[in-house]
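User: I'm writing a tutorial on reading structure tokens. Could you give me a worked example: one chain, its sequence, then its tokens, then a sentence or two explaining what the tokens reveal?
Assistant: Sure. Here is the example chain.
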Amino acid sequence: MSTESQSVPVQVPARRTVIACVGAAGLAAALTACGSGSDSTSPAAGPATPAGNAGDGGGSVLGTTSEIPQGGGKIFAKEGVVVTQPTAGQFKAFSAKCTHQGCAVSSVSGGTINCPCHGSKFDVADGSVKGGPAPAPLPAAAISVEGGSIKLA
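And here are its predicted structure tokens:
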């Protein structure tokens, strides 16, 4: 039996191979971040139509009709809804969660509900997509208007 060791040639990857692998890993990391919903703005909390408070016979009070500007709206982040007043006395509600990647919408201006993450815009009257990458309208949320109060239904 021979006691001498045999050397095995070690292959060193070519520079192109190393650069391609590093680039592919970076691309994979970027795509994973884009698809995970881990944008700088956190997603809207809770469902669009949470259950009402026990014992009050209905949903929780969001606010008053005087808080909702005509042609605009107000975001109720805690409840995950945005309430709009497209025309005088007509109140609508939608999920405050963008249909693109679930970010919370951040403003209502110029007749649209606006998402800060990728620029999606939704119509205040019906929640339809007016711009950006959102694939679907904002889902409607059920509300009731009693006197000057707006409640989740």
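What the tokens reveal: The mean pLDDT is 79. The CA atoms of residues 76 and 112 lie 16 Å apart.
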